[in-house]
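User: For my dataset I need records formatted as: sequence, then structure tokens, nothing else. Please produce one.
Assistant:
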Amino acid sequence: MSAVINRVLSIQSHVVHGYVGNKSAVFPLQVLGFEVDNINSVQFSNHTGYKEGFKGQILNENELADVFSGLIANNLHPLYTHLLTGYVGNPAFLREIANIVRKLRSTNSSLIYVCDPVMGDDGVMYVPKELLPIYRDEIVPLADIVTPNQFEVELLTENSIKSEQDAWSAVEWFHEKGVRTVAISSSELGGSDSLLAFVSHKNATCNTQRYRMVIPKQGNGIRFTGTGDLFASLFLAHSTLTNFDMCATLERTIASLQAVISKTLSFLPEDVKTGKVTVTSAQRELKLIQSKKEIEQPNVVLRCSEV
């Protein structure tokens, strides 16, 4: 019997320079042994946070359907074991993703759909507000795994998260929608020096694994772009490689993520790290290639605790 090849179809943004979207997700998945085919929802020169702006093109829903129809025509779509989606900029494109999920599942009922509902962070929504009800009512119910941050959880559930109990109540909202695995990639519940991450997995017999993890903040307040995209790809990989051992999945995901951030910080000038000079967008780009070893062989230091 031939071995199963894990193959991911990843639909999210692409930048020529830097590491967000597919540029942040594809390499780690490949390093961990996954074949990855990527469709770029946008192709920009750089991410949108750069001072002088960005240039590029946006794929529309008809073009997405056209690309996917080529995969169907060549009977390539049954090869996918996973679908990963991230940044999407318009409602019609997001609805076309829902069509793609259904078509993939029609030939592979065991397909794992990992949805990172990229909508905003730190209280700021940076996609059109029309995407929110589509995520809530049409996309989330199709997902096997979701990896939102705290702000995105609050948007979707329409409830603020002020305590750990609020976080677990939000997790149940996703489970009630049919999502098997919920990973809140980061929350501000850990205080000024740390973040809290939460993960919950319900198996076919409704047994639940629940874990939390305290994650020390790094970088003296420097915020790095692409970390959410990296989290989603690492979580996809390790959930599969550990056969949905949620503690091991979270520990390995965070180990590599923290190592990438640490590596990125090591390249910054000292006056930037101490806050004397403002960090530039270019300096905040993740050092993914330099972190290949830490991605391939995560050194677990931080441990999760069962809830």
